[in-house]
Amino acid sequence: MKIAVINFSGNVGKTTVARHLLLPRIAGAELIAVESLNADEGQGQALRGRQFGELQEYLQTIDNAVVDIGASNVEELLDLMRRYRGSHEDFDCFVVPTVPALKQQQDTIATLVDLSRLGLPASKIRLVFNMVESGLQFKTTFFLVLGFLAEQRIATANPDCRLGTNEIYARIRNKGIDLATLTRDDTDYKALIVKTKGTAERLALAQKLATRRLASGVVPELDACFAALGLGTGGTNDAVALHSPTPCPT
Amino acid sequence: MKLVPKEPPGRSTRKARGYAPDMRELRAQGYTFEAIREALAAAGVHVSNATVQREVARLAKGSATAAATSSGSRSGHELQNAVPMTGTLVLPTPPLATPDSPTEVDLRSGKEIAEAFTSSRITNPLALARANAKDPS
Questions:
Q1: N or C: which end of chain A has fewer CB within 10 A?
Q2: What is d(CA A31, CA A54) in angstroms, rounded to the nearest whole number?
Q3: ipTM of the complex
Q4: What Å distances lie between residue A56 and A11, A75, B41, CA to CA?
Q5: Which helix (H) or strand (E) holds A233?
Q6: Alpha-carbon distance A110 to nearest alpha carbon in chain B (angstroms)
Q7: For chains A and B, what is the number of CB pairs under 8 angstroms?
Q8: Which helix (DSSP H) or strand (DSSP E) does residue B90 occupy?
């Protein structure tokens, strides 16, 4: 299964969706970042939009990939995709994250229109509603994107494909740690804290404990969002559920 | 000496409304808002790009409502007749032919379509909340 994560807008959580939602749940998937700004995060391979020819060739050699297309490269990459006619068919699905901010919703609409113009059916363009605040009405929050899709059904919008805001993503950014590894960490931090004397060391351990707790809390949400995306339906089924592991000592 | 104004009488934004059907037609043919603004300027109506976008969106919304309700809302031509000035915008060679899917009939870029859609919607959170309170569906 090959998935592209794309949006004209920055700050919609493309990298979060690629690294933490999709990559761990697609068996054997490689992460490829088409990005000039986030390329320093150290995980996966990095390409520029203009290297689409190389990307296209490389995709023929692998079975599973998540391609994280950074905002600064989207326009160029879509232009090249139009030039290499039919190249969009290399992807099983285009995942488009969006967030409540109006500018980002407007850019999301632009992204959906341009993807649709490549010839992609609505079933291959799927939205992920990101940074959803609990307590706010979903329809009201995403009224712009949902209003557009009510008029032009060019993408799949499932309200269950949603992720809340969570500081865990900021905590683990650039650290090369994945959420699954964090949740599998069975270190008894509370016991270690008791044994440790210095405040700085205690705080460092407490931070690790808090990060693990956040990770354990967010994995079920990611599982539910991934299941709602339905990537295993209608195509190659390489999707795997990333079940929350046995609870660690809290 | 007799004063001769360069522009016809009335506010420039209202004068632009007289060209609304032409503006909409040009948009449907794929012209950019800027190209339409320049055409308006050539016809002696100097307005901003935002005004062009607003007038096009207003007419599109009005037509959609009229089509949906089949009621007697004013058509573009009636609107044109309601203002004192009428005229036809002239632009160079029209763009290329259109493919047949709904979004491809519209030759605007995805960004232009998104921008026009946004400008045709109420985005003020307070006004939006009031509208939702009146019509929760």
A1: C
A2: 15
A3: 0.79
A4: 26, 16, 46
A5: none
A6: 4
A7: 54
A8: none
